[in-house]
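Quality-control log, excerpt.
Job 1 of 2 completed; input and output follow.
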Amino acid sequence: MNQYWPWLIVISLAFLVLERLRPWRREQRVLRNGWMTDLLYLALYGHFFSLLLAMVTVHTARWFASAVEFAGAGFLTGTPVASGWPIWAQVLIAFVALDFIRWCVHNLLHRVPWLWELHKIHHGILELDWAGSFHFHWVEVIVYKAVLYVPLLLIGIDSSVLFASALFSTFMGHFNHANLNVDIGWLKYVFNNPRLHVWHHDRDEVPLPGANFAIDLALWDYLFGTVWMPETDRQPRRLGFEGIDEVGEGFVRQLFWPVWRR
């Protein structure tokens, strides 16, 4: 776990610099509205909690597999078929499988009312930049980082692959949310990017229950018809959602949402 910490810091600092060198919204300040709250989310969920959850998940999956085997019900966990695969194949399968499942979960977060209550925390961001990429309710973090990893571990995916996946997801999360003026050309049909994801946070034009649910791979939205992009290269007038004031500001209040309502 310790070997990943420096890279997480480097990734975050790199986007802090890149946004200053090539900002998309030039009027947006570095210390924009809510920056302190987002730094808390980043430090706890991005640079600590996500890696801690990955480590706990690894040990939990191993304990579960051992317990099931001891009970004589090894058929429940199946055969660790991926354990003999080369690392590149494990990385590819883990990346694509995880991303598709997370796309499905993200889609549901916008369509199921009680899940949307949790996801409102992320859509409470009014000024988007790299630091908002971990602005999530803690239940979402557990689902994305822990629950989804267990099946892959049980089929034999190496734990180092999942740690590397968490690292790459940090990079992509920063990139997608960044206030960065960059055009990735035809790769926009494959990978999520700032021009696509900013419209996921739109408050006025994108029809409900939303669009652009991509986490890392934009191709799922293009394949399933959930992509929404204006014809001209412009940005949303407002971010957020109707009724955003009910969530309130501050890390502690959002931590206990929706139990703690105004």
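Job 2 of 2 completed; input and output follow.
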Amino acid sequence: MTDKPYCILPWYHQLVQSSGKMLPCCSWAGPPIDSNYGDFFHSQFMQDLRLDMLSGNIPDECRHCVYAETQTGESHRTHGWILATDAEVDWRDAPTLRRQEVNLSNVCNLRCRSCDSSRSTKWAADEIAMKLTPHALESVDWRLSPDQVTSIKQLDFLGGEPLLHQEQICDELEKMKNARSIDQLILHFTTNGTIYFSDRMLDLLRYCRYTWVNVSIDGYGILNEYIRSDSDWHEIDKNLRRLDQLAQQLCNFGFGVNHCYSVLNANAAYPLLQYLADFKTDIKLGITMVNGPNQYDARNLPNDAKIWITDRYMALLDNIPNYRHALESMISHLKEPATMQHDAWVKKFTTFNNFLDTRRHAALLDANKELYDMLDIW
């Protein structure tokens, strides 16, 4: 037994997939568990996992957090310890479900290039054209049990696009408001930025302890529209400005941006960082390294391109101190060896990306000419 478990999340947390299956957390690299979400937290699987964590073992399914910590020193696991301290969770006490990550459905209004139909139903037609079998529509009838109405301290809504399900979420928040437990609730939304809050949701947010909105943005302007197909940059900009105003008005509200770093935007971080620095709110920026599909992993870029991009970002480190950490993460990632042999990567990347360009009437040359010229693989 160790002084404390490797990860504390199994003592207070679970993830609900849109299929109704369960995971210990969103970083878990193993298959989902076919279990009722009301029973999963106390299942034999979770009891065994807690014993494993207490023995000092690091399950292979935790490899995403292990890798993230080699790059940035942070991960879902380390964040879990911070949240546990805030929620006064003690691993020596009986496990109590206090936090849920909830994927209400795989319905989304975008077709992001590193996504698929398991996260966006809009991907189905493209997958059929690739002669793949798309995921079916999934939607979980998620509800808070009477016990959870008073025990839950944090809810994280993911997707699909969670803001397409605001009425379902509001129904459960109303239960917490009526039980007078909503003032202890921390809410998180991960959204693509194309949809704003309904009036009913805005009213309920005022009662919560805190609300944090994480907006997924993969580039500035046309580059974001290219990577996150069907998005409209003007609409996203308008909604970000509204979130900025809300953050100025409410002391219990904040928002940040998550950036999926890939081949497609590897060279183009600076315009986005300049844009974010223009807001009144000090916008936190999180970086997710795309490692699937493998052809979009930035580590597979040609070595001369990786060196050129790394030198560019090294020169920018002192110019944008608020985002130095983000640039350092990108630099560290690019310095790692490729995960594919170069010729195999070129073939897979060009075939896949050109196929999507044709299907979606888009062109990398228009969205990121510098990268297009730099690759010289066409």
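Post-run check on job 2. The chain has one domain: 9-294.
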